[in-house]
Design brief:
single chain; 141 residues; two-stranded antiparallel sheet; 4 helices; 75% helix; rod-shaped
Length: 141
């Protein structure tokens, strides 16, 4: 198949160029096919990535992760605040605790009597609350 000389241009950098097909040579055709195949593969990867990002399962998993992270952050913040508060209370009551322990060591009998009285009051209050829970009493008018 002979080429029409009016359609063929010689370019020293690109070789022979055919205006009718837009190709320079058979090797250029193969190169274009490889580029097209590479572009298709890249587009397939891009489309798969977009599909993965907008799929319902992916959106649900991201929402779960966001909620989990924010919840864990709040719990950590709460635990840190509670720890700071407990540390503050321990520091503020250190003198009082030391004083109570000193007095208890100096006077053990009154401390035992006060402890027994406190336990007796707690047990009695607990029994009373149980009875009230079992028996429903109508208020008197």
């Amino acid at each position: 198949m002979a080429q029409d000389p009016s359609k063929v241009i010689r370019n020293p950098r690109e070789g022979i160029y055919d205006r009718s097909t837009g190709l320079s040579s058979p090797s250029d055709t193969e190169q274009l096919r490889r580029q097209i195949a590479d572009t298709r593969a890249g587009m397939t990867d891009t489309i798969d990535a977009i599909h993965d990002r907008v799929s319902p399962r992916s959106l649900l998993n991201r929402a779960k992760a966001t909620v989990k992270e924010s919840t864990i952050g709040r719990v950590k913040n709460l635990a840190e605040t509670a720890g700071n508060t407990a540390g503050h209370l321990v520091a503020r009551t250190a003198k009082t605790r030391a004083r109570v322990m000193r007095i208890t060591r100096e006077n053990p009998v009154p401390a035992v009597v006060v402890s027994i009285a406190a336990i007796w009051l707690l047990v009695r209050a607990r029994r009373h609350s149980r009875r009230r829970g079992y028996l429903y009493e109508e208020p008197a008018f």
